[in-house]
Amino acid sequence: MNKLKTAVADFGWPRIIIFFFVVALFVAAPFVGVRVDGALSDVLARFGQNGILVLALVPMVQAGAGLNFGLPVGIIAGLLGGTLSMQFGWTGWVGFLGAVGVSLPFAVLFGWAYGLLLNKVKGEEMTIAMYVGFSMVTFFAILWLLLPYSSPNMVWGYSGSGLRTTITLDGYWTKILNDFLAVRLGRFFVFPTGLLAFFGAATGVMWLFLKSKTGTAMTAVGSNPDFARAGGVSSDRMRLVSVVVSTVFGAVGILVYQQSYGFIQLYQAPLYMAFPAVAAILLGGASVNKASMVNVLVGTFLFQAILTMTPNVINSVLQTDMSEVIRIVISNGMIIYALTRKTKVSK
Amino acid sequence: MNTPFKLPSAARVRRFAADNVVVLIFLFVTAIAVPSSKLSGTYIIQDLLTRYGRNAFLVFSLLLPIMAGMGINFGMVLGAMAGEIGLIFAVDQGIAGVQGLLYAVLVGAPIAILLGWIAGQVLNRARGREMVTGYILGFFMDGVYQFVVLYLMGAIIPITSKAITLSRGYGIRNTLGLDSVRQSLDKLLMLKVGPFTLPMATYLVIALLAIFIVWFRRTKLGQDMRAIGQDQTVSHSAGIPVERTRIVAIVISTLLAMVGQIIFLQNMGNMATYNAHRQTGFFAAAAILVGGASVAKATIPNVLVGVGLLHLMYIVVPPAGARLFGSAQIGEYFRDAMSYAVIALALALHAWRKRANAESARAGLRGAASGAVDPAKTEGGAA
Predict the structure, then answer these.
(1) What is the pLDDT of residues A210-229, one digit of tens each?
(2) φ, ψ for residue B102 (rounded to 5)?
(3) Shortest distance, CA B121 to any CA of chain A (angstroms)
(4) What is the mean predicted confidence (pLDDT) over A284-294?
(5) Among candidate residues B229, B260, B290, the one where a domain is terminated
(6) Are residues B97 and B179 in the same domain?
(7) Taking residues A317-337, what's their average pLDDT?
(8) ∠ at Cα B311 (B307, B313), nearest 5°?
(9) What is the mean pLDDT of chain A?
(10) Are A77 and A103 in contact (CB under 8 A)?
(11) Which of A332, A337, A342 to mutate to test the interface with B (most CBs of B within 10 A)?
(12) Which of B259, B290, B321 is the last residue of a domain?
């Protein structure tokens, strides 16, 4: 009984309540006329769509650099890759993989600079990361207008210059992962094999990375910097590596997100994209200084399940659209909960 | 390097530049933008005078938490929401003029105290990361605010006016016209000086607040706050109730933000019910940091200089962008990017300096041979 109690306390009441909330939503769904298979299909698609952005948070948490509220830095690198790939006229797999390829050097460069900055401000990373992300997004809003993009599918029709706010990926790489080997069962359920396989592969890569020599050293830096230093590990270097890896995953993550969404969203759109990812990983059981693959998978699934199910189910029950309020309260409540917990010595 | 305690004059200049780099960058950009904007001096000054009245009070509400060592109170948006709820009731009751504003303050006060108390409790549990927690708390309460205003008002909370209710019968409309109280404080005492009009009543309120803050710093409570801002452990041993004092700092800040938002909105004349508070914290934080404040030290001159500089940039950059790049949009993105970058830079410089100081203190313990870190030497981050 005591064991159960500590297990519950460790996991945290908010997570348990939200978990049962999700279960209740699925149970209630058929009674209010929402198809469970259709809903599940949506949840799976969104799980794969958002997963890599959540995954991107893991290395920095492990290295003790906190929750990466500066995820937009990576997102911007991904957007650069995506828009450049379109500008070059690459379509299909060449387009998507080309976008990933083009975005990587930007992600490494941005991540490196961003990591150097974060190393100078240890202990205050999160607030600063947030504002670095914000300034990056708004600064690039200027560049989207000024850079010499010229593909008629991307620029404003009347002026012939400056990228549009949303650019459709139709004819380029819309849903290229989602539709790859997708299995359709019945009228409402589609299993997005390619998308989930890609997410699975990314999770595998991250897992292997964390198990590697570098990954272990990184975790050591996060758990106990003094111990790590005594063991000859450079804390600054490891943190820098973690920020670069996080930024690279952020870049890939946004490309996966947008191929699934079907549009590239520019300008102010990435401004708040870090927050749902942070809420998701915390919902999965991560804390400010400890995160695992399981946290990512569970958290993303639960969070996307809430986002998908609440509009359908709650609206049918209450006859009004409360999903926005529920989303705001749950996601930010989760982040506050994690920030206000006493940071335990990691086990 | 071998004389760490005596700065040569070149280093002193660099030190000054490093200490004020945020202000200097800002002055530089604005100095370029002012002539390219082609706006007349009269226009710029009149706009600045109006914006002082509109914004200064809100920025003042950040002072006390900084003094208490809690950083920039991004949770001040909670106060802004309380002020908006007060205004909704004032408009609903049809109370016009300054009485309407007073009514809004009276309604807003208990809400602000409650929200401030909650925020103080939360921030006490999030020591060392108050700023990010306060920021997220603003998001969280935005959800609660939406729930109350969009679903409860008119349904459970009685709202009499049909004009401000959504057509479905409950919830407040997206835009609330504040005609009944529009600029009632500003127009109470308008002073005409040459081509300029000065809202003296608003200035008077702001001046009273400044006097209050000067007085408050000298009270026992104010001294306690400053002590806590210096060192929590020592203050605790000295018998200062640390947690309680921190909560009081946040409650006062929230109350002031509530009044500040009401002053802001009466000048604007209408209110975006669900968005008006979203940028409040950002503008106030940018203003105080542009004025040369840091996360740990802020003064009344910081506020006054900051409001002036930030809003000068907000006035001149869009037309300057339109002239230089042929697009006012670029100017608008640019001023946002500048403001965000200034916040990032100011926070980063402070964090970095704190660490450099701690390191040089540690180096001092190790002996003079290892040398001290000269903060001016490795200045700047990649913000």
Answers:
(1) 999 999 999 988 888 888 88
(2) -60, -40
(3) 10
(4) 87
(5) B290
(6) yes
(7) 83
(8) 130
(9) 87
(10) yes
(11) A332
(12) B290
Cα dihedral value B250, B251, B257, B260, nearest 10? -140
Together in a domain, B101 and B227: yes
CA distance A195 to chain B (A): 31
Number of domains in chain B: 2
Question: pTM of this prediction?
Answer: 0.87
Q: How confident is the model at residue B371 (pLDDT cuts 50, 70, 90)?
A: very low
Q: Do B189 and B237 reside in the same domain of the chain? A: yes
pLDDT, residue B376, reads 42
What is the spatial distance between Cα B109 and Cα B57, in angstroms, rounded to a whole number?
Answer: 16
Beta bridge partners of A190: A184
Given the structure tokens 């012939």, which residue do they identify?
A160
How far B120 CA lies from chain A's nearest CA (Å)? 12
- pLDDT tens sequence across A47-83: 999 999 999 999 999 998 889 999 999 999 999 999 9
Report CB contact under 8 Å: B336, A275. Answer: no
Q: Write down the CATH number for the domain with range A2-340.
A: 1.10.3470
A132 has a chain B CB within 8 A of its CB: yes
Q: Are residues B101 and B148 in the same domain?
A: yes
ipTM value, please give it: 0.86
Q: Is B381 exposed, middle or buried (0-12, 13-18, 19+ CB in 10 A)?
A: buried
Contact A69, A129 (CB under 8 A): yes
Q: How far apart are CA A91 and CA A171, in angstroms?
A: 7
